[in-house]
């Protein structure tokens, strides 16, 4: 067994079948999961936690600084988050932009940072031979940021963070409503009162002196912990950490902050108008801090209340009464206080008053009677599967981050086993007691988000750039000349991408298998090669309507029975479609996979499409379409599809289709699509995880051998009819940002140009350090992020540069995008940029195979696009062969500026004059469903 994660007895389920006994059954033990870690505290106070795990030749570096809004001074809301951005600026030994380009060029993935109320973290996942490079970058931020921190860097990041606030709070549906919930739960002087991003006034009001002081106070080694998890040698890794961090001086000790959170003694109510179509209510309570008594009980309660289709609120509000579009509940656990939040989005025409009354009734039932034992077991199983699954991934939100969280909140980096056990100990009586103690009506805040005009504070203008340079300050740590040179990579680790092993059943079904015994988990998807591309011209969205209705009832199971059985297994289950495929997917602990697979087979092979369920899905899809209209970037994507492909092409619409089509679909249409396309010859079963080939063969034969049918429609989607307009506009009056897409038709997945396109696009706009993102975010401060990508379909999919920009720089942003496209076409990349773009694609390939779900997705692509079984083994060499001339050639071939369409979703009155000034050509107006309204211009 490999070091790092040790697994023993997996979950046993009680009471899966038959009536619940009067007495509570004995609770089976939690799965045994041990994180084998080594923790060392350096002389300067830095906590170093090492987890050796050789599943893949990658390593995750995750640093937590124990500082967040909980530590902010009054008037400096959002400061911790702003400072997170500052840490990505220049340091003494690493010039601005170098860290991103070096790490991405080394194959790093999941490179980012984040801030929550209690901590700020920075993380990268890199090939294991590049560990020293990652440590060099992180160490220079900790030790030498102050030496070069200047006003220019601060001003730039103030622009970026304010763009982030506009995009993720003010222009995101319900963003300001959720922010108002925290304003209502906490008093203004409480550190959790403000959103983590803070206000525009406080972000803009931050002074360089404040930033420097914040660094001195909170970014010392004794206020940080670093977790390094993956393909490492612990002794050698600890030596490297001592080399890069050991000489840093301590900062002044940071006292653990204790803040009294006043109890809510009478209900508080607020109404917030927002640019939304469907009202939503947030109901919040103050609850115990993370990992304290009551925290786990409330986590289980949240799962029972709104954790998927088996939950009480889903069954009552969404399924039975159909007055809600979606329901959610969560126990959000923090250090000073936690919040328990229920949020419910209304269906069109429904009342928040009725929804709130229904929520109150379910809460009263839990307080009065408690949950059933089956509900407790379902919730436990789901939470346990989620915790075990989290450690599949080393970086990002995976193992390294979880270890750091446990270390900060409990002092035990290996707390995972105890976490599983505390969830397993939760009883029905415990949940009832928690509901009675914390979720009372007079102890809550209720915030209603309703359609209307946003009421935002007056905009705070950014001051003109200062011509005076701030006086430099002395650094904290002694300079060391060796730090000026980036470390060289170690010997390249061996990595052979997994090869798809496949066999066929007698009925023609392809089975693709990858055995991955690292964790007791299995992911499966039954995929058919028919998606959006197979939609009839008069029924856009039919493929997805069919896929999402599959699990709403079979010949032997009703929709609620399906939901309950899946939840009882602690499994996750889903169905849906993409441009070229539809799929039914399952993810479960190995011990429960066979039972889950029987349900998957029943759903795919024997769907009933009950009339009542079709009508429920119809109402849900119409409401989802209304929600889509609130998302500017989704609106831009749908409008771009219509403009590129035309009304007669199946790609000319979004996944949902149109309102008339949704209303027109009949049960017979769904049944006919299923009969035509869900047949063995058009399908593949793709399974990755802790299941052997023989076990899978036996299981597949037992459940799928009787499946029959022949594909009756193999025609392609036809030729696109691209609009003659060069500018497509969707008016969103009052929008703070413009959702922007510069787009054209690109290439099919099987094109021989694929490697060159991926390398070229990485440099153009695919990477954080790419030309477009660097120009619009880092240099200009126009955007929180602007990226480009090719979507490769079986036929030519779209190319798009997309993101959101400040409304007042919409025209300037378009101009800069076209300049970068022209520059990519005009001259070959220089060797250093080419090598970085090429290596970013080659060396990051292990990320495609980090989790069972990722592996099954990668393997499914082989089937969907007709790629050879050894495709991933061949890909590194094909990418390595891409030359600067080839990258330029594909840029010239596929990126024709005169054929690109600019799609802008924003305040037309503000952005049209800017776009008119560019003289691009004809303009057309489309509505929020992407449908043509009118065309103007010559």
From TrEMBL:
Domain of life: Bacteria
UniProt key word Isomerase: no
Residue span of region Disordered: 451-474
UniProt keyword annotations, A-Z: Signal
Domain Peptidase M16 N-terminal residues, every copy: 48-188, 514-636
InterPro entries to which the protein is assigned, alphabetical: Metalloenz_LuxS/M16, MPP/UQCRC_Complex, Pept_M16_N, Peptidase_M16_C
Residue ranges of every copy of the Peptidase M16 C-terminal domain listed in the record: 208-382, 665-839
Gene3D superfamilies assigned: Metalloenzyme, LuxS/M16 peptidase-like
Signal peptide segment: 1-22
Keyword field contains Ribonucleoprotein: no
Protein name as catalogued: Insulinase family protein
């Amino acid at each position: 067994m490999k070091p790092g994660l040790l697994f023993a007895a997996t979950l046993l389920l009680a009471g899966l079948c038959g009536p619940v006994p009067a007495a509570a059954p004995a609770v089976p033990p939690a799965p045994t999961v041990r994180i084998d870690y080594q923790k060392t505290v350096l002389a300067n106070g830095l906590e170093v936690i090492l987890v050796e795990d050789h599943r893949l030749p990658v390593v995750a570096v995750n640093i937590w600084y124990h500082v967040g809004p909980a530590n902010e001074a009054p008037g400096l809301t959002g400061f911790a988050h702003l400072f997170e951005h500052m840490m990505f600026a220049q340091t003494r030994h690493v010039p601005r932009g170098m860290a991103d380009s070096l790490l991405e060029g080394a194959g790093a993935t999941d490179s980012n940072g984040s801030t929550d109320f209690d901590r700020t973290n920075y993380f990268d996942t890199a090939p294991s031979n590049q560990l020293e490079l990652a440590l060099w970058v992180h160490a220079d931020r900790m030790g030498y940021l102050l030496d070069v921190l200047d006003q220019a860097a601060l001003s730039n990041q103030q622009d970026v963070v304010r763009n982030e606030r506009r995009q993720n709070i003010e222009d995101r549906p319900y963003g300001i409503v959720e922010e108002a919930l925290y304003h209502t739960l906490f008093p203004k002087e409480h550190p959790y009162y403000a959103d983590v991003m803070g206000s525009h006034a406080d972000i803009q009001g931050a002074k360089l002196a404040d930033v420097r002081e914040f660094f001195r106070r909170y970014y010392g080694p004794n206020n940080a912990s670093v977790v390094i998890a993956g393909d490492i040698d612990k002794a050698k890794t600890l030596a490297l950490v001592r080399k890069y961090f050991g000489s840093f001086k301590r900062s002044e000790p940071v006292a653990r902050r204790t803040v009294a959170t006043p109890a809510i003694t009478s209900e508080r109510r607020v109404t917030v108008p927002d640019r939304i179509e469907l009202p939503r209510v947030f109901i919040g309570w103050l609850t115990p801090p993370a990992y304290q008594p009551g925290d786990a009980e409330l986590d289980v309660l949240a799962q029972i209340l709104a954790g998927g289709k088996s939950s009480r609120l889903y069954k009552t509000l969404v399924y039975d009464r159909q007055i809600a579009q979606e329901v959610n509940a969560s126990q959000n656990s923090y250090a000073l206080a936690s919040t328990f939040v229920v949020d419910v989005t209304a269906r069109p025409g429904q009342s928040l008053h009725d929804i709130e009354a229904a929520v109150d009734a379910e809460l009263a039932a839990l307080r009065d009677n408690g949950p059933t034992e089956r509900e407790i077991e379902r919730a436990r199983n789901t939470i346990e599967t989620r915790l075990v699954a989290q450690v599949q991934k080393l970086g990002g939100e995976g193992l390294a981050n979880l270890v750091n969280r446990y270390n900060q909140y409990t002092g035990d980096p290996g707390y995972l086993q105890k976490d599983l056990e505390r969830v397993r100990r939760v009883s029905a009586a415990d949940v009832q007691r928690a509901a009675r103690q914390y979720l009372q009506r007079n102890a809550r805040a209720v915030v209603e988000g309703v359609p209307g005009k946003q009421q935002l504070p007056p905009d705070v203008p950014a001051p003109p750039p200062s011509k005076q340079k701030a006086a430099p300050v002395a650094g904290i740590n002694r300079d060391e000349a060796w730090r000026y040179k980036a470390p060289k990579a170690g010997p390249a680790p061996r990595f052979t991408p997994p090869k798809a092993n496949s066999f066929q059943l007698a009925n023609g079904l392809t089975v693709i298998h990858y055995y991955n015994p690292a964790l007791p988990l299995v992911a499966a998807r039954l995929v058919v090669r028919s998606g959006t591309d197979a939609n009839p011209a008069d029924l856009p969205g039919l493929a997805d309507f069919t896929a999402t209705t599959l699990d709403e009832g079979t010949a032997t199971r009703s929709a609620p029975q399906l939901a309950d059985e899946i939840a009882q297994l602690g499994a996750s289950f889903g169905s849906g479609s993409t441009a070229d495929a539809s799929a039914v997917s399952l993810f479960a602990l190995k011990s429960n996979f066979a039972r889950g697979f029987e349900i998957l087979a029943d759903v795919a092979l024997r769907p009933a499409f009950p009339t009542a369920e079709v009508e429920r899905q119809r109402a849900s899809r119409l409401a989802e379409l209304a929600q889509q209209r609130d998302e500017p970037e989704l609106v831009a994507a749908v409008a771009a599809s219509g403009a590129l492909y035309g009304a007669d092409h199946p790609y000319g619409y979004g996944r949902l289709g149109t309102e008339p089509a949704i209303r027109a679909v009949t049960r017979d249409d769904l049944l006919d699509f299923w009969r035509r396309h869900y047949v063995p010859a058009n399908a593949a079963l793709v399974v990755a995880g802790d299941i052997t080939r023989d076990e899978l063969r036996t299981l597949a034969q037992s459940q799928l051998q009787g499946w029959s049918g022949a594909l009756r429609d193999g025609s392609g989607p036809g030729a696109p009819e691209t609009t003659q307009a060069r500018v497509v506009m969707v008016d969103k009056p009052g929008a703070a940002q413009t959702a922007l897409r510069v787009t054209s038709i690109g290439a099919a997945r099987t094109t021989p140009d694929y490697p060159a396109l991926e390398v070229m696009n990485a440099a153009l706009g695919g990477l954080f350090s790419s030309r477009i993102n660097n120009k619009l975010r880092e240099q200009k401060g126009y955007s929180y992020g602007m990226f480009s990508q090719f979507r490769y379909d079986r036929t030519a999919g779209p190319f798009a540069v997309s993101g959101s920009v400040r409304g007042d720089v919409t025209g300037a942003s378009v101009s800069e995008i076209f300049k970068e496209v022209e520059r990519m076409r005009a001259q070959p990349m220089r060797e250093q940029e080419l090598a970085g773009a090429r290596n970013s694609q080659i060396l990051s390939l292990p990320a495609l195979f980090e989790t069972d779900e990722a592996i099954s997705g990668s393997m499914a692509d082989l089937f969907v696009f007709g790629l050879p079984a050894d495709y991933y083994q061949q890909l590194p060499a094909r990418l390595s062969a891409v030359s600067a001339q080839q990258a330029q050639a594909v840029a010239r071939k596929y990126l024709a500026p005169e054929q690109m369409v600019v799609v802008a979703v924003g305040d037309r009155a503000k952005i049209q004059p800017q776009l008119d000034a560019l003289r691009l050509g004809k303009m057309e107006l489309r509505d929020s469903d992407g449908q043509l309204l009118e065309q103007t211009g010559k």
